[in-house]
Amino acid sequence: MIQIYLLSVVLNGAAAFLIITDTAYMNDSLALILGILAVMTGILKLLLPMDIPVIGDLIPALAGLIAGLLLFFEYRQAQSDLSPGGFESFFMNNKKWFGIIVAGAAVLHFLLPQALLL
């Protein structure tokens, strides 16, 4: 579906921007809402592939799931004073790299919508 494709590109791009800029433009509610939307779109991309079954939407779907997790972790970290655990600290320590990967997936998915492995 073209609507899910558009949502995936826009939400992955917006989430990557917020992750890479290190909360310069982010408030807590925006991080939570955008994170939930990115995860929901990633799940929908896995369930409703565009033309090529699952393989064509795997990277953007995983990028949406990762972006949503990162934004949720940022929200959780801002709301509590607890230090992140092992899984969460791995993502938070490498969030710039994950943000660059999500941005790359969004740009490639925008430029090559019918690619077999994207």
Structural commentary:
The chain has helices at 2-20, 28-47, 58-79, 86-93, 95-111. The protein is mainly α and 118 residues long. The chain has one domain. The longest helix is centred in the middle third of the chain and has 22 residues, at 58-79. The mean pLDDT is 82.
Compact description:
The protein is mostly helical and 118 residues long.
**Count of alpha and pi helical runs:** 5
Order of helices and strands: HHHHH
Write down the domain tally: 1
* C-alpha termini separation: 15 Å
Query: What is the percent of helical residues?
Result: over 70%
| Global geometry | elongated
Please indicate the percent range of residues in DSSP E strands (runs of 2 or more): under 5%
Mean pLDDT: 82
Count the E strands. Answer: 0
Q: How large, in whole angstroms, is the Cα Rg?
A: 14 Å
Biggest sheet layout: none
Structural class, from secondary structure content? mainly alpha
Query: Residue ranges: pLDDT <50 for 5 or more in a row?
Result: none
Which tags fit this structure?
single chain, 118 residues, mainly alpha, 5 helices, 73% helix
Summarize the helices and strands and which ones pair or pack:
Elements lengths: L1 H19 L7 H20 L10 H22 L6 H8 L1 H17 L7
Helix pairs in contact: 1-2, 1-3, 1-5, 2-3, 3-5
